[in-house]
Amino acid sequence: MLQYRTAALAGFATQCWWGGIKVMVFAAFYGGTSVAGASSSMSLEQAITYTWLAQGLLVLLPWLGDPEVAQAVRTGAVAYDRLRPVDAYALWFARGAGWIAARLLPRVLLMAAFAAVALPLAGLNEWAWQLPASAAAGLAFVLSTLLALLLSASMVMLLNVAATAALNERGISAVATPVVIVFSGNVLPLALLPDGWQTALLLQPLAGLMDIPARLYFGQLSGWHAVGGLGLQCFWIVVLVAAGRFAMGRTMRSLQIQGG
Questions:
Q1: Other C-beta atoms within 10 Å of 145: how many?
Q2: Which of 27, 104, 217, 225 has an alpha carbon within 20 to 30 A of 81's alpha carbon?
Q3: Per the confidence metrics, is the pTM higher than 0.90?
Q4: pLDDT number for residue 259
């Protein structure tokens, strides 16, 4: 995946475009007269930084299964993975995590260079990606992002298993995409949703992809609350890996190889 530099640049340009649109939407929203509740949970500066964070980390969102697995299922080449002298789940998990990371690293570095460096140099500091609340918040964010990568890979594995069972990934991806982009906080930060929903939104697994890392970055989760947020990510990784292993075992036992 690291060979496809043009794809990384094209994705970066698209994410800058959408990021700019979302920043302008937030500026108009916060410029209104009835945003007292929103501004108390997240300031405009934080909403703008959140937007650039979300665009930089976009490929963490597991709305698609591993395309190599999907192709192997369609062609029958999945039989080769069953014959390898390695654990099939571990093989697919490592490959999926590498697939995500190889797309993530170039784009997040380009986004940081643009939003955190180029915009301030151009005199647009109010629209820029701001620094974390503290050094501890920045360290917690990095650790949380690594856990988000593992969490995303565990969710991609569930999509892989579902595609293996259905012999086609398109319908599964069509259902997963809107759920993932809404409940991860990609469309709108979860902190801006109604207060009565906050506990449920924080506890659901998709919050660990974007919402929890952002809360740590802004210092909204600190001390034992930060430990709790990281622990919640670890909890969902363990649960989803266990569920994925169980589902994969059942699916592989009844798998019919396409092609004979």
A1: 22
A2: 104
A3: no
A4: 59
